[in-house]
Amino acid sequence: MSKPKFYLTTPIYYPSGKLHIGHSYTTVAADTLARYKRMRGFDVMFLTGTDEHGQKIERRAAEAGMSPQDFVDQIVSSIKDLWELMDISYDRFIRTTDQQHVRSIEQIFTRLYERGEIYKSTYEGLYCTPCEAFWLEGQLDEGKCPDCGAEVELTNEECYFFRLSKYTERLQELLETPGFLEPRSRAREMINNFLKPGLEDLAVSRTSFTWGVRLPFDDKHVVYVWVDALFNYLTALGFPDETDDVKRYWPADIHLMAKEIVRFHSLIWPALLMALDLPLPKKVFGHGWLLFGGDKMSKSKGNVVDPVILCNRYGVDAIRYFLLREVPFGTDCNFSTEALITRINSDLANDLGNLVSRTAAMIRKYFPEGLIDERVTASPDPELRQMATELPAKVAADLDELQYSKALTEIWTLVSRTNKYIDETMPWVLAKDPEAKTRLATVLFNLADVLRIIAVLIGPFMPSTPNKIRTALGIPEQNAAGRSLTDWESALELDLYCAPSGVPKTDPLFPRLDLEKELEALEQFAD
Ligand code: ME8
Fold first, then answer.
1. Would you state the pLDDT for residue 136?
2. What does the pLDDT read at residue 191?
3. 20 to 30 Å CA-CA from 346: which of 39, 232, 270, 374?
């Protein structure tokens, strides 16, 4: 039987400067979902990329004294390096300057024009360049862009318009469809803020600058950057050609993003697809913002935290853990060094790291020749074992709902229970009693076996930690019978722990950090 498919996307980011930890947030969430779905047997297509056209990039390049193409090339290369550093397992990286994308956009626009979905007129109104968005006077916040707070500019130019208004009713129906736009509160926002006041047709071309895809039927015009960008989700599969990838992967299963661009994805994007009679994405998820000092972290505000510095200093898995654990995925999260260091110390160094090193150290010390095979079960083994057995289904249910933080909380509940199990069983006391050797072996086996399961379940979140745990406990990739000890199914079964080559001495998984020292160190980077 062929595998079911799962197509997920991140926004394609503007290469207008180095990316920050806010961009890493969405991409790490997407990567975690992609890894999880692959483990569950899906044929995953995970797309990310860069949105390279438009006025903002053209201006930034000019400020840097470079051609737009040279300017974006260097930033895109740093973005790819960042994703490599952060263990992002994307399947495809699209750049809107790719020739194939540009040709596709030309064909798509011709098709929209021929179907009467776009027409020529004049746009007179307001434009926010940092957001590349058109606004009406009444939508402004104290005269400024309601999304980013920047000054808006008055523009008056000949434009092609897309008949967005004609899709109002179908969009209303779509937004009311459970599961299409999540969290649900965002769907109500879209209906109240945009559909109720009445949708206007959308300007989809510009003539006041040149860095973009030219309209094949009127080459004074370049395609409005958002429309150019939204179609990436299809052109990356080869659209408008009817490629195998288009047939296999479209419609997307989920588009992930933060809340400020939900309106482009839940109004403009579906309407464009409706205009072309194409299937609509199954879900749009708008997560919360990473805030810094209470304000949205953004390149235009300059309050950004560099993920490269954080990953190099604390390790990629610690940063990924923090991002996904700190708050529920739909909610805003205040990013602070204190919160990060506290999480690393409490959850990773103390709870998980100590559990692994204590377990490994006790096996090495009490059974230098390897654990004996006899077992004798006593309380509280059944309780621990039952929790471990129930965990995979809970994590799966949470991840299917994008409840990353809840899934990690469930896993850490087992980590804590396992630590408590050590306190209750007191292996060091058992070790003094030669009669208790079998019981001691059972306790240590249960500890290592639960950690084997935990290692599998944290894999999607923290890609390199599972192998470190397995190495520390001597767990091979497969047992003697050739059974994988790393796949999802292995987490569903108890008693698979084995360490045929013994338990080596290894470094702590997550060294404890000194908060004061870290605050000082990061302060230097901020200068
Ligand atoms: O909007 N908190 O690109 P962009 C959480 N090119 N997420 C954040 C964030 C923060 N402080 N800052 C950025 C664009 N993000 C368009 C997208 S898609 C067809 C075109 C993440 O570089 C989040 O996913 O401004 C947000 O939606 C996205 O980066 C915006 O990236």
1. 86
2. 96
3. 39
Question: How many domains does one find in the chain?
Answer: 2
pLDDT score of 303: 67
Q: Which two tokens stand for residue 356?
A: 């692994």
Residue 527: pLDDT band (50, 70, 90) is very low
Residue recorded with tokens 């005269």: 143
| Residue 251 and residue 136 share a domain | yes
From ligand 1's centre to the CA of 288, what distance in Å?
11
- Examine the domain organization and report whether 46 and 148 are in the same domain: yes
Coil, strand or helix at 363: helix
**Domain-embedded: residue 484:** yes
| Separation of CA 47 and ligand 1 centre (Å) | 15
Same-domain pairing of 175 and 257: yes
Count CB-CB contacts under 10 A for residue 425. Answer: 22
Q: Say how many Å lie between the first and final Cα of the chain, rounded.
A: 57
For residue range 360-415, list pLDDT tens digits in order: 999 999 999 999 999 999 999 999 999 999 999 999 999 999 999 999 999 999 99
How far apart are the CA of 180 and the centre of ligand 1, in A?
A: 20
Q: Looking at the domain assignment, is residue 113 inside a domain? A: yes
Whether the per-residue pLDDT at 525 is higher than 90: the answer is no
Question: 198 alpha carbon to ligand 1 midpoint, in Å?
Answer: 26
CATH number at residue 360: 1.10.730.10
Q: How many whole angstroms separate alpha carbon 288 and alpha carbon 328?
A: 9
Residues 288 and 352 occupy one common structural domain? no
- pLDDT band for position 138 (cuts 50, 70, 90): confident
Q: Would residue 188 count as lying in a domain?
A: yes
Q: Which domain holds residue 482?
A: 337-492
Q: pTM above 0.85?
A: yes
Radius of gyration of the chain (CA): 26
Q: How far is the CA of 29 from the centre of ligand 1 (A)?
A: 13
Digit-coded pLDDT (tens) for 105-124: 999 999 999 999 999 999 98
- Report the CATH number that the domain containing residue 59 is assigned in CATH: 3.40.50.620
Residue 87 within any structural domain of the chain: yes
Q: Is 295 in the same domain as 424?
A: no
The separation between CA 36 and the C-alpha centre of its own chain, rounded to angstroms, equals 12
Q: Which residues, judged by CB distance below 6 Å to any ligand atom, belong to the binding site of ligand 1? A: 11-14, 22-23, 25-26, 51, 229-230, 232, 257-258, 260-261, 289-290, 296-298
Which atom of ligand 1 is found nearest the CA of 258?
Answer: 27
Take atom 29 of ligand 1 and give the residue whose Cα is closest: 23
Q: Give me ligand 1 centre to Cα 13, in Å.
A: 6
Question: Measured in angstroms, how far is the CA atom of residue 103 from the centroid of ligand 1?
Answer: 25
Q: Is the same domain home to 417 and 347?
A: yes
Same domain, 253 and 365: no
> Which residue's CA lies nearest to atom 30 of ligand 1?
13
Hunting for tokens 């990690």 — which residue is that?
408
The minimum-distance atom of ligand 1 relative to the CA of 232 is 19
Which is the closest atom of ligand 1 to the Cα of 51? 6
Same domain, yes or no: 410 and 296: no
Angstrom distance (rounded) from CA 335 to CA 346: 17
Neighbours of 385 (CB within 10 A): 16
DSSP of 438-462: HHHHHHHHHHHHHHHHHHHHHTTTS
User: Average pLDDT of 340-353?
Assistant: 97
